[in-house]
């Protein structure tokens, strides 16, 4: 069983489509960058599954960002993805967080920002408050506001695996949602353990064994950070040379760390001099 995979499916006799995502390795890659509290580990898993599901709904080449912000102990949680199902993510928090902390206990007065950035065309941004019972309910409200298509989302994570399902009415002229309500009731019976241990065809058979379901070829989901030495060098060059030289005079080097993967890029005085001369050494130390 591939541990990081997304499937799309359609119901032949209903104007409804679905997605199922199961994550393990990519989820562990995100968690490995920081010593996250248990509740935050679970939230990041749900957020990863959600971002993968959302990414599968977009019909363009580009990026998506699902970002949670608030005034509580957790100030930020974000997962970035693209149309190729490449994900990365990070969270910032302070203080103690209970293992069973709710969304509101973690974020206080918070909101979710979903940003779609196509390679060609205009960027779209939607915002919804975090005042619903869980992340899935917040996302359902987002779809209700932005797409106005009945949508059901199920999200699960346990610190080791993450998974999710999305069910959505197809945009048609029909205003009858009876099929969606029936299929939504079936989908709501899914258990976390089933999504963590069973392959997608078996999950769908258990849920919809009396329905005609068309399952499409799976898509791999991967973790990949976009940081690089060149990007770090570009960030350094946004500061004046005097500021950089002052830092070097105190520390002898500049460490540029990536929050997403914990990679550290180190620049010494020679590297910095090369930067401001219009180039930098490709074989400089890391």
UniProtKB/TrEMBL annotation:
Keyword Membrane: no
Sections of the chain in a coiled coil: none
Cysteine pairings via disulfide bonds: 225-227, 258-261
Subcellular location: Cytoplasm
Pfam families on file: HSP33
Organism: Shewanella saliphila
Domain of life: Bacteria
Function description: Redox regulated molecular chaperone. Protects both thermally unfolding and oxidatively damaged proteins from irreversible aggregation. Plays an important role in the bacterial defense system toward oxidative stress.
SUPFAM superfamilies: Hsp33 domain, HSP33 redox switch-like
Protein name stated in the entry: 33 kDa chaperonin
Entry PTM: Under oxidizing conditions two disulfide bonds are formed involving the reactive cysteines. Under reducing conditions zinc is bound to the reactive cysteines and the protein is inactive.
Family: Belongs to the HSP33 family.
HAMAP family, per database record: HslO (MF_00117)
Gene expressing this chain: hslO
InterPro entries the record matches: Heat_shock_Hsp33 (IPR000397), Heat_shock_Hsp33_C (IPR016154), Heat_shock_Hsp33_N (IPR016153), Hsp33_helix_hairpin_bin_dom_sf (IPR023212)
Keyword terms: Chaperone, Cytoplasm, Disulfide bond, Redox-active center, Zinc
